[in-house]
Design goal:
The chain contains 18 helices and eleven strands. It is 48% helix and 13% strand. α5 links the parallel β5 and β6. A four-stranded parallel sheet has the order 1-5-6-7, sandwiched between helices. The chain starts with a strand and ends with a helix. The protein is of the alpha/beta class and 384 residues long. α5 runs parallel beside α6 and α6 runs antiparallel to α15. The structure holds nicotinamide-adenine-dinucleotide and magnesium ion. The site of magnesium ion has 4 residues, from α7.
Length: 384
Amino acid sequence: MTVLGATGSIGESTLDLVGRDPDAYEVIALTGCKNATRLAELAIKHRAKLAVVADPDCYADLQEALVGSGIAAASGEKALLEAASRPADWIMAAIVGAAGLKPTLRAVKQGTATALANKECLVSAGALFMDEVARHDTTLLPVDSEHSAALQAMTGTPPESIDRVCLTASGGPFRTWDLQQMADAEPAQALKHPNWSMGAKVTIDSATLMNKGLELLEAHHLFALAPKKLDVLVHPQSIVHCLVYMRDGAVLAQMSCPDMRTPIAYSLAWPNRMNVPDMRLDLAKVGTLTFESPDPEKFPALRLAKEVLAAGGSAGTVLNAANEVAVEAFLDNRLGFLAIAGLVETTLAGSPDLIALSPQTVGEILEIDEEARRRARVSLPRIA
Ligand code: NAD
Ligand code: MG
């Protein structure tokens, strides 16, 4: 097995599970972006064959940290693609953002069973990505908790029997804040997620509810579900991850602790189940499960994502690129919290030419991504 994004939140959780039964797995390659020290520690602990840092400036540190270990070190985009192409039975795609697109597609084209955490791949390049999955007969296993839950709840049911798939959202740290408070929200406040411990980008996406918007696009591509069959419900306890409404009135809900190790374990052992004793859910302790509709005024990102879902074309590529620029600017204190969705909306509104394009290759998608980023950066000072 290989882990792309090994030093991140999903990567670390994956390796935590792998480390519980080290003889069951052979680790081929681990990759990170800049944190050479942590990557080397993980590579040594899990006896990886190859460690790759994406940032060439971190290569010397990685080499030094691996001296005498017998583990090969490499850096840069080519090395990242090489790591993704090394023969393996299973790969975890856990790079954050569109940066994960090319390496993940490499693994897909190799026919390696792909556990997909990197939802931006499907938001930005869903049609092409799913075509490649089909062409190479690659097993694609969703890792996002809602999509793992959807797969578990839908398995065995013919598509025509499914009326609706509803993804749950915690509502994030600002669920009970008013708009004025949200306008002044600082990065540190947005980074305090009530239930989940995750990387910075997905945590901010959870605070704007853009994460749920991205997940609607993700579910649309993964399960070939029409937009009208997809829905979102706010569920602050994050115990129910997805609800599948059947046409006979039955509703199947998948539940687990709000910890990514359960969906990751499912993707590792699929179609079997791994024994993860510390993930047992104590419902008496949870006590109450509540559900509410998302507030469209406080969370316009969800509306934008639904519009993008309806628009099709390259709208997802533009949405994703603008959102990545906006989240980075917010984390850098260059953009207010509510302006994140504002910048995404402005970029979408200013890009009908890009949205109308039908890219045939990953290179063409990345050109649209780059141009959308450029437009978002141009609009940023005005929106800020
Ligand atoms: P993270 O920021 O903790 O980790 C990201 C990983 O990608 C790190 O290893 C980092 O070094 C690497 N990386 C970053 N930029 C890179 C680049 N340009 N080139 C190569 N590598 C790069 O993020 P995370 O929370 O682990 O999330 C990873 C993906 O999984 C995201 O797409 C996220 O939306 C998705 N996801 C995460 C969670 C969660 O609980 N953390 C849940 C569902 C889905
Ligand atoms: Mg999710």
